[in-house]
Structure formats: structure tokens, C-alpha cells
Specification:
By secondary structure, this protein is α/β, with parallel strands linked by helices. The protein folds into two domains: 188 residues, D-Maltodextrin-Binding Protein, domain 2, CATH 3.40.190; 203 residues, D-Maltodextrin-Binding Protein, domain 2. Strands 1, 2, 3, 6, 12 and 13 form a six-stranded mixed sheet that branches. Strands 10-7-11 form a three-stranded antiparallel sheet. A hairpin with a 2-residue loop joins strand 4 and strand 5. Helix 2 runs antiparallel to helix 14 and helix 8 crosses helix 17. The longest helix has 18 residues. About 4% of the residues have low confidence.
Length: 416
């Protein structure tokens, strides 16, 4: 019997090597599924973290952006949410108000590297507390084909700077045959969040805002907002410089610019990177411009980051995971994998940025960036706006009717 017990102990040691027994597991959900991003996380960063932290293992899940909020809501409701998760900064208020995340100030105050983030740490700021550490950022800037500009007699070194110039350029760049668009002067998203974000840029450029100063009522249906939506809808319905038959996502490959099916496009860095990867022969003709101006020169910029769940079982280990993934070396790899904007000041001229003038433009364009409103009900408000903007684009209702109806619904949401 004694010999049998000793044998069992020996087998246990052989089957469960030292360091595996008693390991702490930290669950991490990342948003988005670009292959390069997933490869860097799975093949480089997770093994490195586990080697540096032998007592902790990471269980990583990648969730498509479109499914993220629903899956997180379901997981938290069932008490099985991840210890650490990624989301956009504008989601901070909702999670904080619901008591689902913890402020990170106690960790950030003693983290010597926190200062390197500068203002980007505000991406997770809500009621004076910081709830997120940013991973990467993106902005929407006008991207265009220099060769098509030249073909149409336009100077590629002088992109449009006003709404009027944007419309005029789009008209000149559009190619039609028998009333059918063969080449869009500008490719515009016509559905969902993408369409809402393009209109948001025009809203801000026109001096408008989403809400009143107290964030208690909608303000986007003012004359400023209506004029901005009329301009966007006019490009499609009146000027006919964009085609509603096409609605290409930012990560689609090949892009409308690469195909020559469009001359201009409001792109994020990932969209520009797709052209570089899939159509390198076209990329030498790709240019990026700063936002147009009416009353203000502004466009949408946002940062996504890592949050610490309130229900995390091992909070110190979970924070170490956040600290690791937002460390300088990890962020350099993550941002290069998608050509996104690094949140650290020390990385704003890192290798892939220094080598690419287009990505440099996105970094420099941060001076014109404005984030989405950080209020608890933002995602609900955004989805309502997206639905009504789409109706206006397709001519089902007028721009004023669309924004007035959206305001009615959103004011009820805010009142709740």
C-alpha cells in the first residue's frame, strides 16, 4: 500500500509539472478579429506574459466588434464575465454606471509608465476616475487617389478643405455612363455606425453637438445638425457622387480606392493598411488629408482600451495582464499589426509610423480629433441615430424628420 501511494505521488509529479499546479487563470476578451492582431496576441504576447508570470495563465477570446456589447452584457448578467476586456472609450460610462468595472487609479498612480500615455488615458475617464488603459486609437480622415486627382485636373497636393470644395471635387472625380456611376467621386457608408460617424464629423464641423451641456437632451436636431445631414444626403441623392449600392466596411479588401471604383473615401488607419497589404501597386498613389472645416476643423477620433471587471477573481493578476498588454513593447507590436495609432507618446514615431507618410498623417491628425460622448446611454443613442440617418440617406424621410424622430427616442432614453 505504501509503495502504491508513493507511485501515485511520482505519477502526479510527472503529469503535473511544478508551476502548473495552483496556477491562476486570467480571462481576457479582445475586440476585433484581424488576423495580424490575433497572431501577435496568441503567438507572441501570451507566451511572453506566461513566461514572465509563471504563476498565471491567460485565457484569451477574440470577439467581433459587432457582437461585443451583447456578449459582454450576457456574460455579466450570468456572472461569467471576463476578468479583463477591451472596448471603446465611449462605453466607459455605461459599464461604470452599471457597476461592472473598477477604477484603475490606484494602479495607475503607482505605475511609472502611466505618464507616457498623456491625454489618451482620458479615453476611460468618467466622473473623475479612470477605468481603462488604451491599446490603440483610430481616426477618420479623407483618403484619396492622387492619380485620379491628376486625371481629373485636380492637384493631389491640395485636397479639399471645405464642404464646398469636397462637393466640387467629388463631382469632378465621379465618372458616369448612361446615368450609371462607374466611379464614385467619394465612397460614403450608407448604413449603421459607419454612416453615423461620417455625419458626426459634419455635425461637429458645422458647430453642432450631440447633446446639451448637461447631457439631458438631444441637441443634434438643431439647424446645425440638420444642415450637416442635408449635406451628407445631398452628396448621394442630389449630387449623385456616391452610390448606395455599395457599402464597404473599413476592413474590406480590396477597398473601393484600390479597385479604382472610388476616388475618395473616409478611412481609418486599418482601411489604409488594407490597401497597402492587398494592393501595394496602388498604395503609392494613396494620400490622406486633414478634415474639412465649416465652423470648426474636427473629425472623430477614438481610443479603445482594457477594462478591469469588478467581478475579477484575481484582481492583482488581472491588472498585471493589463499592465503587460499596454506596455511599450506589447503596444508596438499590437499597433503595428493593424497600423493603428499608439496611445503612448514614446511610440508616436515608432518604426511603422516613421516609414509611412499616410499613417503619420493620422498621428498628426489627432490634433483635430474629438471622441464620442462618454455617457452611460451612448451606445443606445448611437444605434437610434444610425437607424434614422440610414432612413434619410435612402430617402424614406427627410433629414429634419430623421433627426427629430431620433431626438424624440433619445430624449426618452436620457430621461430613463
Amino acid at each position: 500500500m505504501k509503495r502504491f501511494v508513493i507511485l501515485l505521488i511520482v505519477l502526479a509529479i510527472l503529469l503535473f509539472p511544478m508551476g502548473v499546479i495552483g496556477k491562476t487563470t486570467v480571462t481576457v476578451w479582445f475586440a476585433g478579429t484581424p488576423q495580424g492582431f490575433m497572431d501577435v496576441i496568441n503567438n507572441e504576447l501570451v507566451p511572453r506574459f506566461e513566461a514572465e508570470n509563471p504563476g498565471t495563465s491567460l485565457e484569451v477570446t477574440f470577439v467581433p466588434w459587432g457582437e461585443l456589447s451583447i456578449k459582454l452584457g450576457t456574460a455579466f448578467a450570468g456572472g461569467v464575465g471576463p476578468d479583463v476586456f477591451m472596448h471603446g472609450g465611449a462605453a466607459t460610462a455605461g459599464f461604470a454606471a452599471a457597476g461592472q468595472i473598477l477604477p484603475l487609479d490606484c494602479y495607475l498612480d503607482s505605475w511609472s509608465e502611466a505618464e507616457d500615455f498623456g491625454a489618451t488615458l482620458d479615453c476611460g475617464l468618467y466622473r473623475g476616475k479612470r477605468y481603462a488603459v488604451p491599446l490603440f486609437g483610430a481616426g477618420r480622415l479623407l483618403t484619396y487617389r492622387a492619380d485620379i486627382f491628376r486625371e481629373c485636373g485636380l492637384d493631389p497636393d491640395t485636397p479639399p478643405k471645405t464642404w464646398e470644395e469636397l462637393r466640387d471635387y467629388a463631382k469632378k472625380l465621379t465618372k458616369k455612363e448612361h446615368g450609371r456611376i462607374l466611379r464614385e467621386g467619394i465612397d460614403l457608408p450608407v448604413r449603421g455606425i459607419d454612416a453615423q460617424q461620417i455625419w458626426a464629423g459634419f455635425l461637429w464641423q458645422n458647430g453642432g453637438s450631440f447633446f446639451n451641456e448637461e447631457y439631458t437632451k438631444a441637441a443634434f436636431n438643431s439647424s446645425k445638425g440638420v444642415e450637416a445631414l442635408e449635406f451628407l444626403v445631398g452628396l448621394i441623392q442630389k449630387d449623385v457622387v456616391a452610390d448606395t449600392r455599395y457599402d464597404v466596411g473599413q476592413s474590406a479588401a480590396p477597398s473601393p480606392l484600390a479597385l479604382g471604383r472610388a476616388a475618395m473615401f473616409f478611412a481609418v488607419p486599418e482601411g489604409v493598411n488594407q490597401i497597402k497589404n492587398y494592393s501595394p501597386e496602388v498604395y503609392r498613389n494613396i494620400r490622406v488629408a486633414f478634415p474639412t472645416c465649416r465652423e470648426e476643423q474636427v473629425t472623430l477620433y477614438s481610443f479603445s482600451g482594457l477594462f478591469l471587471s469588478k467581478d475579477a477573481q484575481n484582481k492583482e493578476e488581472a491588472w498585471r495582464a493589463i499592465e503587460f498588454f499596454t506596455g511599450r513593447k506589447a503596444l508596438a507590436g499590437i499597433n503595428e499589426s493593424m497600423s493603428t495609432l499608439p496611445p503612448r507618446k514614446s511610440l508616436t514615431n515608432t518604426g511603422f509610423i516613421a516609414k509611412d507618410n499616410n499613417i503619420k498623417m493620422f498621428v498628426e491628425g489627432m490634433q483635430y480629433g474629438r471622441p464620442n460622448p462618454n455617457i452611460a446611454a451612448w451606445t443606445k443613442c448611437r444605434d437610434v441615430l444610425s437607424r434614422y440617418i440610414e432612413k434619410a440617406i435612402f430617402g424614406q424621410i427627410t433629414p429634419k424628420e430623421a433627426l427629430d424622430r431620433a431626438a424624440e427616442e433619445i430624449n426618452r432614453i436620457l430621461a430613463e
